[in-house]
Design a protein that fits this description.
two-stranded antiparallel sheet; elongated; mainly alpha
Length: 252
């Protein structure tokens, strides 16, 4: 059939062009993927570059403060929570005065780690008051405990009482925001896809609400203590202290 031969020849005659188009498409996809990955990495790097402390410094700060356990830090929480807001120097005086009342030789080792985090807050000033919850969270950088205990202590701060069973979602979002302010969150998980359209996928820093929502395992306007722990362990959310990658361990 002559017509059939002509049809076959059209494909064969253009085989080189089709092969060339396929190669161009593959190269374009590789370039797009590479550019998207590079942009995502640059956003992650910008988050890491903004951090004023390294994870290793925080871990060392906990290790050198064996006297500051969860029981003692909860005592400070009980004193600070009713104050609502206070300056950083006032909080340090409150905490250290109380801790030294039972142990006159108590010394907060590597306190410069906490100082750098505090001083990095936008517009920080020694006479400027911040929510008490921020400073209590910052003090957990020196808390010598298991990760499980640390998650419990932070939830005490969120719920507003030691042993609290639930907290409003808005309070959880506030606390995750403070964690971001103090560079406690995993940088990689803070990067998400941008809505901005370009020939390759752009990335941006996720909002606190997106980080919290991505890690939730339940619905509703409240978060319970156990859900909070699951959120902290999730690799779909904010991953405080990077523990969702390394697993949980106790500081010896």
């Amino acid at each position: 059939d002559k017509g059939g031969d002509d049809d076959s020849n059209v494909f064969l005659d253009n085989l080189g062009k089709l092969f060339g188009l396929a190669i161009v498409s593959i190269i374009t996809l590789v370039i797009r993927s590479s550019r998207a990955g590079t942009h995502r990495d640059s956003v992650r790097d910008s988050i890491e570059d903004a951090a004023v402390v390294e994870p290793g410094e925080v871990e060392e700060c906990r290790e050198v403060n064996p006297e500051l356990d969860s029981a003692k830090i909860r005592e400070v929480i009980g004193l600070a929570l009713p104050l609502r807001s206070l300056t950083y120097p006032a909080f340090l005086k409150l905490a250290l005065t109380h801790l030294r009342s039972s142990d006159p030789n108590f010394y907060l080792a590597h306190g410069h780690v906490l100082d750098r985090c505090a001083f990095s807050l936008p517009g920080y000033a020694d006479d400027r008051e911040y929510p008490a919850e921020m400073w209590m969270l910052l003090l957990t950088n020196a808390l010598h405990s298991s990760v499980e205990e640390r998650m419990d202590v932070v939830f005490d701060i969120i719920s507003g009482s030691v042993g609290g069973s639930a907290a409003p979602l808005s309070r959880v979002q506030e606390m995750v925001g403070y964690m971001r302010d103090f560079h406690m969150l995993d940088a990689q998980l803070q990067v998400t896809e941008s809505e901005e359209r370009y020939w390759y996928t752009l990335s941006r820093v996720a909002t606190v609400a997106e980080l919290v929502e991505g890690s939730r395992t339940e619905v509703g306007g409240e978060v319970g203590r156990e859900e909070w722990k699951r959120m902290c362990r999730s690799r779909k959310g904010f991953c405080p202290w990077g523990e969702c990658w390394s697993g949980f361990r106790k500081f010896q």
